[in-house]
Amino acid sequence: MTLRIDISGLPSERLRFAASPLAELTAMLHVLAEPGHHPQFAAWAGDVRAGLRPELAERLREAEFLWRSSQADFLLPARPRPTLAEELDDVDGIDDETYVTAALVTTCGGNRVRLAAPSPLTDATARERALDLAQARGARQEAFAERLLADPAAVRTRVRHTLEQCAEAFFDAAWTSVAVQLATDLRLKNDLLKRQGIGAALASVSGAVTLAPDGGCIIVDKLQDKSTAAHGTGVTFIPSVFGSPHLVVVHAPGWQPVVQYPVAEPSPSEPVSLETVTLRLEALAHPVRLRLLRTLARGPHTTGELAHAWELSLPEVSRHLAVLRRAGLLTARRHGRYVRHTLNLHALTALGTDLLAAVMR
């Protein structure tokens, strides 16, 4: 599964790297709403929640659908500004239909393409569908969706005021603490883009982001099959400290593609692709291969030894070993006449973590 961004014919200057206060605030709000996704920020989240005024805490709960399970597209600016206030001004410039549609996607859990038309502000059937989806997700979601559809201007004003209160309560201090890290990352990315081209810049973003061999498409390893195009508008890459481990992509029709990526740790590990994780899960789904792994967990074995241990034919064992090798769960090394198969303990141990990372991207 991949998300593809068509950049064929796009000049390199239309691929931009820039920091966004609003995008980073959104990442922080997601951490507060889903602390289990971000154990490295558990202490920070606990301190912030403990220090929130009750009114602001309630405001965050009522609007958290804009950033909890996914981020509303207008919270990831295609053209980042130096200050949060400037970016909020840009959000104010979005028409009600665009704003409401983006907000309902995250509130109701609907599909971006289906919600794009007709508008729930003007179409009774679309409105009823949006409210049904919100109701299925809970009373708070339903109440938020009802207010949004009844008076979008009032909800928009309240959401902006909530975000401004966050700036005073915790964002300004946190933004100052990460600004140097973000600036350092941006210097690296822009230098790579200028000196070595798009491929090198993308490779430095994440192992889950690559340039297609023909150079016409950015491929993002995500648990979704989607595509979008950047013709004329370009693609914006926004580094995030608080967004780790998520790789967030704005890809809805009508929106410029935006990728919010986690700033790498000093010694980052290369992410395992979804394809590799899938191969490993499929390899482990067969009972015979599990039996072979049980024996290999005790030490290296030849094909003949495995066949004898489990009373299987040599060709059958060879076929199963080939599947395990392709999945990276085994290594094979020749010792004279014999080829010994060894279990890749690291790959097997890390499978749960790799699966979680692929899902969280």
Structure overview:
There is one protein chain. Residues 112-116 have low confidence and may be disordered. The protein is α/β, with parallel strands linked by helices. It has helices at residues 21-33, 42-51, 54-63, 84-92, 96-108, 112-115, 124-137, 139-150, 152-196, 198-205, 274-284, 287-296, 303-310, 314-326, 345-349, 351-360; strands at residues 3-6, 15-17, 209-211, 217-220, 226-229, 235-240, 248-250, 258-262, 301-302, 330-335, 338-343. It contains 16 helices and eleven strands. 36% of the residues are buried. The protein is elongated, with a radius of gyration of 24 Å. The strands form three sheets. A four-stranded mixed sheet has the order 3-4-1-5, covered by helices on one side.
The tally of strands reads 11
User: What structural category characterises the helix and strand content?
Assistant: alpha/beta
Low-confidence stretches: 112-116
- Given the C-alpha coordinates, what overall shape results? elongated
Q: Provide the gyration radius in Å.
A: 24 Å
End-to-end separation: 12 Å
Query: How would you write the strand order of the largest sheet?
Result: 3-4-1-5
- The number of helical segments is 16
The fraction of residues assigned to DSSP E strands is 5-15%
Task: Name the average pLDDT.
Answer: 89
> SSE order, as H and E?
EEHHHHHHHHHHEEEEEEHHEHHEEHH
Describe the main β-sheet briefly.
4 strands, mixed
Q: What level of helicity do the residues show?
A: 40-55%
Concise account of the structure shown:
With 361 residues, the chain is of the alpha/beta class. It has helices spanning 21-33, 42-51, 54-63, 84-92, 96-108, 112-115, 124-137, 139-150, 152-196, 198-205, 274-284, 287-296, 303-310, 314-326, 345-349, 351-360; strands spanning 3-6, 15-17, 209-211, 217-220, 226-229, 235-240, 248-250, 258-262, 301-302, 330-335, 338-343. The protein contains 16 helices and eleven strands.
